[in-house]
Specification:
The protein is α/β, with parallel strands linked by helices. It has two domains: about 5-55, Helicase, Ruva Protein, domain 3 (Orthogonal Bundle), CATH 1.10.8.420; about 80-195, Dna Topoisomerase Vi A Subunit, Chain: A, domain 2 (3-Layer(aba) Sandwich), CATH 3.40.1360.10. Helices cover about 40% and strands about 10% of the residues. The protein has seven helices and six strands; from the N terminus they run H-H-H-E-E-E-H-E-H-E-H-E-H. The strands form two sheets. It has a four-stranded parallel β-sheet with strand order 4-3-5-6.
Amino acid sequence: MSAKLPKSVQNLIDEFSKLPSIGPKLAARLTFYMLNKPTTDIEKLSQALSSLKTDLCLCRECYNISESEICTICDDQNRKSNILLVVEEPLDVIAFEKTNSFNGLYHVLGGTISPIDGIGPEDLRIHQLIAKIKNNQIDEVILATNPSLEGEATAAYIKNLLINENLKTTRIARGLPVGGDLEYADEVTLLRSLEGRGDY
């Protein structure tokens, strides 16, 4: 953007540009869109952003985002406490909850093992996961990290730690998305779709 822009406008463009998937052009469009909004709308947005840090915390049981020490999922007595779904981030919890098909509990790792980024097992909540498994009656751990190199490495690392525990360790099936074409799928995806096949 031009250096002739007012400083407050340029500052907002710069801040928007720091967000994922937002380049300078989209950041500028968002900024000028905000300029045309009523002051009350700007104040509501500002309050919503501010409350992200002041009104939220991490659940002390699963490390999902919560408005109290124990999140509503962990506090739900109707959920199966013997099944634990291990995910990377809180967004993954939301994705699984939208399916309305999982009724167990979660554990949010806070990322994946990524040596290139300087993230090792000690930087994640793996120690807390192992402690939770040892201190509770967990019958099955479902590893639901992303099917990336980092996600696969993290799942393998955790599975290795649990090898001597008396529980079932499973990995979510990976395969083809609905509407996807076989000809465009990579070899690993096709292999995983075969491995994860079920009765039809």
